[in-house]
Amino acid sequence: MPLLDIADLSAGYGGKTILDGLSLTAERGDVVSLIGPSGSGKSTLLRVLIGLTPPTAGTVRIGGEAVDYADKAGLKALRRRMSIVFQQFNLFQNLTVLGNLTLAPVRTLGVAPAEAEARARDLLANVGLADKAGSYPDQLSGGQQQRVAIARALAMQPEILLLDEVTSALDPERVGEVLETIRSLASTGITMLLVSHEMAFVREISTKVVMMDEGRVVEQGSPAAIFETPTQPRTKSFMQAIIRH
Amino acid sequence: MSGDLFSPETLAFLAAALGRTLWMTFIGCTIGFVIGMVLAILRRTRAPLLAPLRWAAALYVETFRRIPFLVILILVLFSVQAFAPDLSLLGIATIAVTLAATAYLTEIVGAGLDAVPRPQIESAEVLGLSWFDTLRHVVLPQAWSVILPPAAAFMVMFVKDTALASHLGVVELAFAGKILVNKGFSPLAGFGAVLVLYALISWPLGRIASSLESRLAASRHR
Amino acid sequence: MMLLRLLLAVLLLWAAPAVARDLDAIRQSGVLRVGVNPNFPPMSSYGDGGTLQGFDVNVARELGRRLGVRVELVPTEAASRVPFLVSGRIDLSLGALTITPERRALIDFSVPLHSEAMGVITTSRLPVRDWRELNRADITLVNMRGNQSVSVLAEKLPRPQRLLVDGNADTIRAIAQGRADALVENVDFFIGFTKNYPDVRWRVLPEPIFTAWCGIGLAKGNEPLRVAVDAALSAMHRDGSVDRLWRDAYGAAMTVPVSEDQLKRTAASTQTGYRFDWQPVITALPYLAGGAVISLQIALIAFWAGAVIGLAAALARLNGSPIARRVAGAYVSAVTNTPALVQIFLLYYALPEIGVMLPAFVAVTLGLTLNAGAYLSDILRGGINSVRQSELDAAEVLGLSRLDKLRHVMLPHIVRTVYRPLANFFIVLVLGSSMAALFGVEELTGRAINISTANLRTIETFAVTGLIYIGLTLIASALLALAGRTMFGVRRA
């Protein structure tokens, strides 16, 4: 049974369809990369999965259990199993790095403050920011902030981690440190769903690559299959456009 | 019966009047700030059950920002008679200040809440924080630095507006000027002294308010 | 309409619990609460020690002694008398309360306490010998708001212009400063204030115009109290106490004494409590609407004149010489750190000392203009600062002329930044123009005060006045927002 099972999922705003009956699965430990032109619905899919944008049709199952997006308790349960990292980091500006990492575990998971802090310090050490625990977000570089944001998501101990173009807002020389963090994360066996424009990185790290267009899955398969022997014309033209650059 | 403007009696009289001016402003605006905070937060809830309250809060704010403070004072004077016929004129004026300040401060607090970027709230949401935790740990701490400077500036401004309470017969600073002039001081001396006293209060308070603004702007994250 | 209905509902709620205290309750508490006017020497005023003194105060104490209760004095302005009586905040109201049929509909009266002989106080400037000679359009009569004389004058002397002021002292000052030529009032009450102006040659015309009677006001239907007060007051007249107290205060006997015949004419009442009556204020709606037009005039003049001053001050602070900068900065901080009301007090009352006498409308509009100038200079300065240097650089590189730069690069930014604050400030000015009422200008609030002191329907009148202000500012806001969108591309909030 797949850990994440998305079936016929649709969503949109104001009469405009963004996701159009999309289906997708991920096994435990998978690293699934979503690629495709802008506007194809990749980021919206992540927002729907985490419950920020309501779906209009379809089902999402995690470990066989259907998620009830209309229900507060359902959303609460969902967010204990799944977490997200945003393109713009969105760290709480009023809290220190440590505060960002401990607020939710203490308030929503009921973890004891001392335990939450110990875990937060471990996570910070893992992303190479052990010395920044007392800093405020605006004292950190973009790359550092994004690594804190990843640590914050991990502090919730999710089974599934969503990463939404996490390197797009960074200076080019800061991209590497964040990719390195994700790379080491992949080796821990956590299930990840990521949207990225770093094609070399996608090819290297993914267990599965999904080509999306107009709110649907065009084609999916192993990185080698999608990058080297795509079968659909839309995937081929997308790959050619990328290679030309 | 023109006397000495700097005689101990006159100075004590002016000091007491100044005290009433500051009392009305400070008590009225402080209570107004607390209620304004509640109303501003209420207006930003989404529960359908609270819709009538949201509507009432919006009506309140629109109404009291569109009636002159002088008219509010007169209406409060007469309508309070039914509830509390023994309330002092100073108390009545303080209620009027509270009613007006609440309306304006609801808008100021609301603007501060709206200034917190939407993604900050979404982040709290995806981390599973409750509505109240989000408000307390994420929204309010960030809104604070946006709210405080204009709220402080509003209070300083209202020190001057309370001069209208002289019409009710509250012996605050402006009325004190009138009494001095009626006692035989020249209008220039009587009103001039009062004008200087207002400036002596308002100017330093205004400086404190604007230094608060630059201090808070400098330390955005705290 | 919804708003109106809601407001009415709130108002009706107010009506319910107001209860005046009956004689038993007063005797039980041992305290009689008497309302007196605190600014009415020698009837009642604050003495040097800060306690109230005068004829009314002494009458109240004597009444209390005879009723066997302690007297607590409550300072009460003219317009507050009826609401205070109805709510029981005061048990009796003193302060030259003239007995009229209109007032009898709202409150009860005791037998007369004293007479009110209407006469004329003027100066040697005005060469008249008889009050009938005052009926000329080139004469200004000063009146105190809320006094019976206002309506009597409209009837007997319709032609002169009138100046309404709020206090007894203000009437005599107005004549001394030359704002008005004469005062038609109860001479006894007002002559005392002439002592403040020993350089003016004061005159009193000999023949009174007519005589009215003043009684002690009580809440309607409070019969045992009224009977007890009537008995005590009649006894005070008969044993000469009232005459003695009057002489103490005025140094002479009452011009027309209260006769034995009048002490017998007491009137019982039937109705109790306060009943809302919206008819008087609805009848007065056209009069109030006329006042609203004057309010708008004041706001418009102050806004545009203030905008000119504000622009000059803003430019001086941004680009002026060091001296211009300091002058403009001093102007802005002097005005913004003091109340507009006290500034206007100075313009209106102090300028005559150096020979500059501004009519009330001019003084108020000038004061509000000075305020508008200071606040608008801050808004406009912010607008000019909002122009981005990067866009000016781009315009420079593209070779735009100075005029084109101003028109196509700077102005659009400035307008978009300042439009909404300017529109909000206009609303502030409309509301602020209500201050004019305190100087006798008959704009919306002034007219509301006029009406309510005559019909005593204060709550009804001011509730409607509040609604007019709400309507006025809502229309103004909507029109300004529409103009902003269509003419300047200013988006919604």
Account of the 3D structure:
The complex is a heterotrimer of chains A (245), B (222) and C (493). Chain A is an alpha/beta fold. Chain A has a single domain, classed as 3-Layer(aba) Sandwich (Rossmann fold). Helix content of chain A is 41%, strand content 24%. Chain A contains nine helices and ten strands. In chain A, the strands form two sheets. In chain A, strands 6-7-8-3-9-10 form a six-stranded mixed sheet, with helices on both faces. A four-stranded antiparallel sheet of chain A has the order 2-1-4-5, covered by helices on one side. In chain C, 55% of the residues lie in helices and 14% in strands. In chain C, strand 8, helix 6 and strand 9 form a beta-alpha-beta unit. In chain C, helix 13 packs across helix 16 and helix 14 packs across helix 16. The longest helix of chain C is centred in the middle third of the chain and has 35 residues. About 2% of the residues of chain C have low confidence. At the B-C interface, helix 2, helix 3, helix 7 and helix 8 of B face helix 1, helix 4, helix 14, helix 15 and helix 18 of C.
What would the keywords be for this entry?
heterotrimer; B: 222 residues; mainly alpha; MetI-like fold; C: 493 residues; alpha/beta; D-Maltodextrin-Binding Protein, domain 2; 3 domains; nine-stranded mixed sheet; three-stranded antiparallel sheet
CATH topology of the largest domain in chain C: MetI-like fold
CATH superfamily of the largest domain in chain C: MetI-like
Sheet/helix structural class of chain C: alpha/beta
CATH top level class name of the largest domain in chain C: Mainly Alpha
List low-confidence stretches of chain C: 11-18
Helix/strand structural class of chain B: mainly alpha
| Overall tally of structural domains of chain C | 3
Count of separate DSSP helical elements of chain C: 20
Q: Report the principal-axis shape of chain B.
A: elongated
Q: Going by CATH, what is the homologous superfamily of the domain at 19-171 in chain B? A: MetI-like
Q: Give a quick account of the main beta sheet of chain C: strands, pairing sense, barrel closure.
A: 9 strands, mixed
**Strand residue percentage of chain C:** 5-15%
- Using the CA coordinates, give the radius of gyration of chain C: 28 Å
Q: Using only CA atoms, what is the Rg of chain B?
A: 21 Å
